[in-house]
Structures are given as structure tokens and as C-alpha cells.
Automatic annotation (TrEMBL), chain A:
<feature type="transmembrane region" description="Helical">
    <location>
        <begin position="206"/>
        <end position="227"/>
    </location>
</feature>
<keyword id="KW-0812">Transmembrane</keyword>
<feature type="transmembrane region" description="Helical">
    <location>
        <begin position="96"/>
        <end position="117"/>
    </location>
</feature>
<comment type="similarity">
    <text>Belongs to the binding-protein-dependent transport system permease family.</text>
</comment>
<feature type="transmembrane region" description="Helical">
    <location>
        <begin position="263"/>
        <end position="281"/>
    </location>
</feature>
<protein>
    <submittedName>
        <fullName>Carbohydrate ABC transporter permease</fullName>
    </submittedName>
</protein>
<feature type="transmembrane region" description="Helical">
    <location>
        <begin position="30"/>
        <end position="51"/>
    </location>
</feature>
<keyword id="KW-0813">Transport</keyword>
<feature type="transmembrane region" description="Helical">
    <location>
        <begin position="159"/>
        <end position="185"/>
    </location>
</feature>
UniProtKB/TrEMBL annotation, chain B:
<feature type="region of interest" description="Disordered">
    <location>
        <begin position="1"/>
        <end position="33"/>
    </location>
</feature>
<dbReference type="InterPro" id="IPR000515">
    <property type="entry name" value="MetI-like"/>
</dbReference>
<keyword id="KW-0813">Transport</keyword>
<feature type="domain" description="ABC transmembrane type-1">
    <location>
        <begin position="110"/>
        <end position="328"/>
    </location>
</feature>
<dbReference type="Pfam" id="PF00528">
    <property type="entry name" value="BPD_transp_1"/>
</dbReference>
<keyword id="KW-0812">Transmembrane</keyword>
<protein>
    <submittedName>
        <fullName>Sugar ABC transporter permease</fullName>
    </submittedName>
</protein>
<feature type="transmembrane region" description="Helical">
    <location>
        <begin position="147"/>
        <end position="167"/>
    </location>
</feature>
<feature type="transmembrane region" description="Helical">
    <location>
        <begin position="114"/>
        <end position="135"/>
    </location>
</feature>
Amino acid sequence: MTTDTRAAGSAPAPPANPALTTISRYGARIVVGLLLTLYGLVSLYPFLWMVSAAFKNQVEVIRGGHLIPHHPTFATITHTWNELHFFRYFMNSVEVTALTVVLTLAVYAAAGYAFAVLDFPGRGFLQKLFVALLFVPGITVMLPIVLLENKMGILGTHIGLVLPFVNGGAPLSILLMTGAFSAVPKELRESARVDGAGEFHVFTRIYLPLTRPALITVALLTAIPTWNEYLLTRVSLNNANTYTLPLGLQTLSSENVPHYNNLMAGALIVVIPVVLLFLSLQRYFVNGLVGAVKG
Amino acid sequence: MTTAPRPAVAEATGAGRSTAPRPPGTGLLGRATRRTGRRRGYEALSGWLFVLPAVALFLVMGLYTVGYGFLLSFARWNGFAPHWDWVGVQNYKDLLWANPAYAPRVRHAATHTLYVMIAVPLLTVLVSFPLAVLLNSARRMQTLLRSVYFVPYVTSGIAVFFAWQYILQPDGAVNAALKTLGMGSLAQPQGWLGNPHTALPTMIVVTVWGAVPVAMLMYLTGLQTIDRSVLEAAELDGAGWWRANASVVWPLVRPITAIVVLLNLRDSLQGFQTFLVMTNGGPGDHTNVLGLEAYRLAFLKDLAPTLGLASALGWLLFAAALVLALINLRVLRSRT
């Protein structure tokens, strides 16, 4: 408690003036509120303009300058969705993300169960191996992944994206699932085993239902980066029919003169599902992130 | 302090180990040893089956690619030729000093990376700690504001980077806002990313904007675990709001600051997606960073035999990340 003694050594309390304190408290609260709102605006600033441009037409977006469109129009978004193939990109993104999430949950819930509950030779070593994966920079393995998939003939397919995405999420998913499974009382498994239940039965009927919050957290923390992934996707996919949303956006921006209204409408289509997902499942997200960072 | 970082894995294995001398099955005392033996075998087998999919995927997508990349860093190859030309550590030498075509570029990129590694962690702490303190003192709106502050993190990706690009243009929203506020002299007629002098600082600001949410959340969680009585004691002793935060709260959250700084150091060292999307290293390589250089060598050189160089640069980044991780451990250990 060294901090306490240090604080005690400071100047004695000033004479209290109730009226003054009230005013300064009130004033302070207004200042705090203003500062907090200001940073809220900073956080949302690019999004405000994204929305603004998405509701402008070609002429108005070039004139720029004003946030609120003078002639707001839905045409830009519908054009981007229909004519610029964003519906197709959207479905591709959904497919890649859903596959990645489902596989991640299946593979690493099982692994986490083994690490947390079962005693088997090599457990400690394997666990360390998966955590060590965290320290390998993405760029270091990206090239070998592309070369390997080229050899295997899955480069450019969605499964070729899903496999490295699932593997890339291993350290975090294992960390979170192992933590959740070891919090389940061991007696539950013991008594089920005595009653003759098999290991798989214990896992699916007892452990999985009890760790649903952790499963949702892992699903979220997998889904969001996968939805936004651009680097590996860009060097893997080469057929426009397989493009995910980030690559769709990329094609829009690489036109000679980027039409910022279409580009921002596309960006809005990318961002909205993620924001909705985050807002509806925020609790899991925040808990998981704090747990992940501490690990 | 509960926020002291402790790997969940260590806890899990610890918990597992404590039950290792398992109590024999109830009522089966006589056959206890044989049963335990058979149960061990069954448990080991199921353990292996449960980790099998994860391990199989790891062997192919993890271990194989890592090994392949490591070997490739000692060879020269263009990705199409049937054979690799083994060159030993020449790739590393070329990158670090030997080859005038690569070494100066790498050094240039390293300088930029270093700027980013200094500025981003520093600014992130400077913004997120006060923000968390203020947010913690706000009673109403706390949840709403926390969600708002978090949007930059969940949306982080190409879509948001394009939005930034849009508002940083010559006739974009940032310049327009400066003119409206009567600070038109600060506006950048070439655009904030077009002017070689403002491009890197602008990229740093955008990176910090994206890094603040997680840091703020970690500080906020840390602040909420601080015992109220500690703060009340400080207040009774006459410490004002400012002083209480500076000399009581700030030292208490120091472990969090260490994590925030080191996470951002790592991301600044390796991250390059923002740069690839927003500037592609331009104007005139003024925002080229090491990760971007490695990406270029790997994917954007067509038929030039630079794949080995790309791998070598990747491994140099890995080595730097490892050093950071070790410092990380040392710093955290010494604090707890």
C-alpha cells in the first residue's frame, strides 16, 4: 500500500466551501460530458461521411463539402448492390465467414476440451505450440500458404481461404475455450462417466451447453476479422465471381476515377452487418476481448 | 490487482495438474489401480482424438508453411522456376546491407516503421487513458459511449480505410472542416496523404484512431477494479481529481499500460494493411513500412526472383517480434 502513504504525505485538505464545490462539480460534469461527446464524434467522423456520400448522387459527391446531402437518394446504394455485384460479394463473404466460424467452433471447442479436461501425453507441449503460433507474423506465412494452396489446387477457392483463417484463429480460440472448459466443475464429468457416458457424450451434452457464452465470444471474435479480411484474400482470389466484399470494394477503388458515392455505399454494406452484430452481442465481445488480451 | 496478466492457459494446465492424482472410483477401492490404468489409457486416447483436427490443420497450415518459408529464406526463386537456387544467408545480407537495390529501401522502410512504433503506442496511451478516466466518471451514457468508441475497432478494415481516404482528399471533409473553423491555412491542397510531409503523420493518426478502442477498454476494466477506498483515502488527504489520477490511479494501471504499449509495438512492427490500402507506400515511398515491403517482394514483383528475399524479411520481422515478446515478459514479470 505504498501509494496510500504517498498520498497521505501530500498537502492537507483545503477548507471546504460547499457552494463552490457544487458549482465546480456541475461545471466539471459539463466539461467531462463535452469531452466525451467530442471523442464520440472523432470515433464516428469517417462513418458520418461514409453515410453522407452513400446517399449522394454522382454530381453531388464531386461537389463535396456538405455533410447532409441536398438531394438524398437511395439510388446509389441500390445501384451498388445490384449493378456493381455487391449482392454477390455479400453472399461470398457470408459463405466464407460462416464456414470459418463453424469450423473454428468445431475444431477448437474439441481441442479446448482436451486441453482443459483430459489428461494425455504431450498436452503441455501441444498447448505451447499453439500459443507460439501467435508470435509468427502473418506476412511470414502468407507466401508459403499461397504456394502450398497452389500446389494443392485450392488456391482461389473459398475453402482455400477458410483453412488458413481457421488455423490463424487457433491460439485465441484455444485460449478462450480452454479457459471456459476448466471453469466447469470436474464432478459433473466424473459422475457422468461413472454413469457410463462416453467422452463425446460428456463433451456435447454437458460441457458445450455450459460454455455457450464462450462459444458465442469465439464465434464473434472469428467472424468479425474474417468478414473484414483483405490481405490473404487479395492474393488468393482471382475470379470476380468468388470475390468477397473487401475485394469488391478494392475493384471499385481501382477504377481510373473512383466514384466515391459508390465506393462509400459499398463500404457501408461492408460495415453495417459488423456493427449490428457487435451491438447485439456486445457483452460477449467485450468480455472475450478482455480475456484474450490478458492471455 | 486482478488485472495482472496471467495466461489462461497456465491456469488451465495448473488446474488440470492438481487433479492428476485422481481419487480412485468410489466403492471400487480394491481394483483401483488397474481401473485407473485403464482409465488413463482411455483418457489419453480420447484426448488425442479431440485435438486431432486442430493438430492436423496446424501441421499443414502452420508447421509446414512456417518450415517452408524458413527454407525459402535461404534460396532464390521467382515462384515458377522448377528449382530453388540455394544462396545461404545471402538474402539476409542483401536486405540488411549488401545489395544496393534492396538494403537502402529496407532501411528507409525501417525508419518509417520505427517512427510508427514510437508514435502509435505513445499517442494511444495519451488518448486512451484520459478517455477511460473520463468515461469511468460518467454515470449516464457510459454504455452508449463505450459502444460508440468501439465502432472503429470492429469495423477496422478496407471499408473504413477508404472512408478515411475519402475525407483526407484535397477537397475532402477534413480540409473543408479546417476552412470552416477559420484554420484554412492548415488545409492541405494536395490532400493529407498526397503531401509527403503530412502523409506519414496522417497514417499514424489513423492508426491511433483504430488502436484507441481496445486500449481504452482495457484501461476502463482496470479502473473498475480499483478499490474505491483507495481513491477516497486520497481525496480525504486533499488530493484533487487531477492529482489523485496522476499519482494514485496511473501507477495502479501501469501493468495495463505495459500491455497496451507492447501490443501496439507489435502491431506497428508487423501491420501494413492500412498502408497498403490508403497510400500503398506513397507518395514517393514516404509511407513505406517493413511489412509492406515484404508484401511487395512476395506478391508484386511478377517474375523477379524475390520470394526468398520476402521470406527473409518476414523472418527478420519475426525475430524483432520475438525480441519484443521477451521484453514484454521481462517487463511484466518485474512488475508483479
